Give the backbone structure.
Amino acid sequence: MTVTLPQLRALAAVVDHGSFTAAAEKLGVSQSSVSHTLKSWEKAIGAPLLDRDRGNRPTRLASELLPHARSALAALEALQGSIDAGSGKVRGCVRLGAVATACQGLVPGLMGLWKARLPEVEVSIFEGDDDELPDWLESGMVDAAILIDPASTPPGSRVVAVDEMRAIVRRDHPLADEPSMPIDELLQDGLIAGQGGCEGQLRRIHALAGLPFETSQRVRELATIMSMVQEGIGVAIIPSLGEGMLPASLCMRPLVPTVERTLVLSGPASRPWNPLVGELIAALPEQEPMRRTT
């Protein structure tokens, strides 16, 4: 059996976008074309690739195939990008991974800049957790990512922002009007911590304060953290880039002590970059990265 590019593209698109309709729109083909492509592939291999009764989730077989499919597609897109670059064309699509706070406080400004300077380059955002992004980048699920405090990055990567960890409390909290919040006083209300990232920064803050790292609640989604703080269940510490996500009932205040995060725009370390990633980095202004600190 020969695997075709339309089959690889159809499988990745349905998994990424959750439906045949959305996948077809992304690929620029009809829904029936996507459906027929995947059904014919499933028939050829004699096994289902999607669980259609569970929101088109990938089957175990599809989960094993997806990393190879993404790697092949990423290589093809990088090849096409090199061909276009060689002929002086800067056009195509870049899949960019970023954490929720960067998607809120940083990415919109970057996309506005790229749209103005690279009008034929489309940037598609994939929102993930701190720990997911390096794997997505190396597997080919995304072409570039805004990594948080990476230990190392490939040549050509660029620091795009620096922010700091800050306290989140209700506006009627006793410390809400103070210029800063000592962590030992803040933690008396119980810390609601996220499991989707930032734990490294939280542990560093506790270590600086000479406190054990303890949480009263551990949840995954940032929106859940904010809802729990709203209900008075506890307090939270999140990056300053997330300030725009706060509901009116919450406020963000400087934390003492605190730590900074460095956000780095990078391509993969284990395979050649899509040339368009380099174009995105080259389009950034030659100045100090945005800082969201006290």
